[in-house]
Design brief:
3-stranded antiparallel beta sheet; single chain
């Protein structure tokens, strides 16, 4: 069964588009297809705003699927 790991970089300032999510898969045969909730199909998303992003990863050789979601945060505005 494939295992999913993610590295999340939160948005640096309120309203910025500089968050990212990078996922990696172990214990699979590959190749892997990535389908993100925002329509991207790569293992790494960049230029993200804060929010929740879901991914479905399919191991093409075994037809096994895993899915997860990740939250990109942003700091509170300075008042």
């Amino acid at each position: 069964m494939p295992v999913l790991a993610a590295t999340i970089s939160d948005v640096s300032c309120p309203g910025f588009h500089d968050g990212s999510i990078a996922v990696s898969v172990t214990n699979g045969n590959g190749p892997f297809n990535y389908t993100w909730s925002n329509g991207d199909t790569l293992s790494t998303l960049g230029n993200l705003i804060s929010g929740i992003y879901a991914v479905i990863i399919e191991d093409v050789s075994s037809q096994c699927r895993i899915q997860d979601s990740f939250k990109v945060m942003e700091p509170d505005p300075i008042i």
